[in-house]
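This section describes the prediction task in plain terms. A model, or a person checking by hand, is given the sequence of a single protein chain and must write out its three-dimensional structure as a string of tokens. No templates, partner chains or ligands are provided. The sample shown here is typical of the held-out split.
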Amino acid sequence: MLLGDSNIDVLTRNSLLEEVESGAGWIPFVVEAMDWQWRNSGVAREHPEYDLLPSEYFERQIFASFWFEEDGIEAALRRFPGNMLYETDYPHPTCQAPGPASAGTHPRVYAEKVLADLPEDIVRRVLHDTAAELYGVAAPGA
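The expected answer:
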């Protein structure tokens, strides 16, 4: 595990990691488990140079994207709204391009469904703001 392995160097503030094409609904569980193991194993005593919990490193500098998940994605979006990016995975075979042999849902229909119960500020972050900040893209008309 990236942040659970005590033999890695602590990520510097200038390091960013983006996890793509793996979904994001699993992240809250993994991050919670890593924090628990971190505390339970006494990592802070053994490695005082690691001044943050794995969840804090994640929130500071790791990003993930999602495109098909329905179960579990809301928890990830609520917990880490500034770290999640929506993707369509186009043009890969698992993308959201509906077709005769695809289970894909049109991207707009999917986004409207999974984002429907989220506050507007989270929706804006997930659909635009996080990616714009990460990639240095100005907002239209800015």
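For orientation: The longest helix spans residues 120-135.
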